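Researcher: First entry.
Model:
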Amino acid sequence: MSKNDNAIEVRNMSKDFKLIYDKPNTLKERLVFWKNTKKEYRHVLKNINLNIKKGETVALIGTNGSGKSTLLKLMTKIIYPTKGTIKTNGKLTSLLELGAGFHPDFTGRENIYFNASIFGLTAAEIDKRVVDIIKFSELEDFIDAPVRTYSSGMYMRLAFSVAINVDAEILLIDEILAVGDQHFQDKCFEKLHELKNSGRTIVIVSHSLDSVKKLCNRAVWIYDGEVKLDGKTGEVIDEYLKVCG
């Protein structure tokens, strides 16, 4: 298999976060207590190696704090590895944090233009998609209100609608689909199946193992910052439940 068959390549990748305790807040404290500042490095991910092929739908599973969401953020280049490399091959869009990229004082319509431009669309390209984005979100009656007046479910509707309409080849999703009513969750998963069948690459973090089984043909279990198991979804979930169920 050539490298061009991979949408995402993770090589010998580790991520540490520096924690600082007793950090001085004032200039006087910095001068007097500068030696007393305590630092600690937390090793969140350790020597991760992954290939995600173009067209694969992959779930990252694991308990809270295992490092799976950090791995997804590294794939988006929101944060960068301490060691190793992550390469992506193709236009990428992500749904990582509810309302990320939205300005609370802008209207929903204005935020569509703002958010879609971050994903690389021109104003003319957004003009062609804006009606479809609003229609999918089902927010026609609220689209010209400031998004600070939106509920969390409305935020998710708008964010998802923008993300799926930028024609990205790689879509990264972190648990955001757990927000919102059942009707819209079902609609989102139906759309994800459509994107999957069209050959898009999807990487999703989710605690909904039933949804993962229905959507993903591969699962990667992250345990204590390391890849514990990587394989067929059902087999990985069965082993995961034996330990963490």
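Researcher: Second entry.
Model:
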Amino acid sequence: MLTGEQKRFFAEMGFVIVPNLIPSHRLEAMRRRIEELCERWDSEEARRVGAQQEAEAGNPIAVRTAATVRKFSGLTRYEPIFREQAMDATLTAIVAELIGTPLLLYDDQAMLKPPFVGSAKLPHQDNAYFRVEPADACVTCWIALDDATVENGCLHYIAGSHKWGLLPHRAIPGTPHLVPDLPDGVEWTPAPAKAGDVVIHHSLTVHFSPDNQSPFWRRSFICHYVRADAVMPQKDPTQLLRVRD
């Protein structure tokens, strides 16, 4: 459960880091399974969870190997260890404290930054993609599978930007990114996390992650949760995984 200070921090800043939340056995199992999927990046089992290479995201220095996998999507549909984590009672209880119940899993993905070639995820608000209403009914839980540092591409936030509402976003040609026009002089707050920590942010908090400039992987498993009574024009709620009543 969150402390009163953690709840106040989230309400004011739009994000909060919950330390040491993921059991070590599950953390290791998720890392091991991602390593297996990366090794078999061109297999059917990897394709069915949306394996994406850095080269497919427009990174000119990346080739297609096990060491350049950028992303997997929809892991919970096929991969039991990720489904188990998405439905974890401790994690979903914390989410319920922030947005209420019943809770659905809106989407999930593994975002990987391979050593030296992991590219940036440009600034954005998650709800520019989701369009959930009300925006307060949706949060993202970013689970650090490795230590996430400034050097290897940890999340960075504009603290308090969830209070700005949904900003206009524009597409960046040749990439999957939507980016907002931000005021001059905005201050970015890095959110380094240890393996097993969970970084939770509001659907409107502006965030980005930089390139991986280190020799270490920066892998994460991300669960986007939504309250079941929210309007979600891009999803059929009856088809989403119900994780908490």
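Model: Note on the second entry: The chain has one domain: 16-244.
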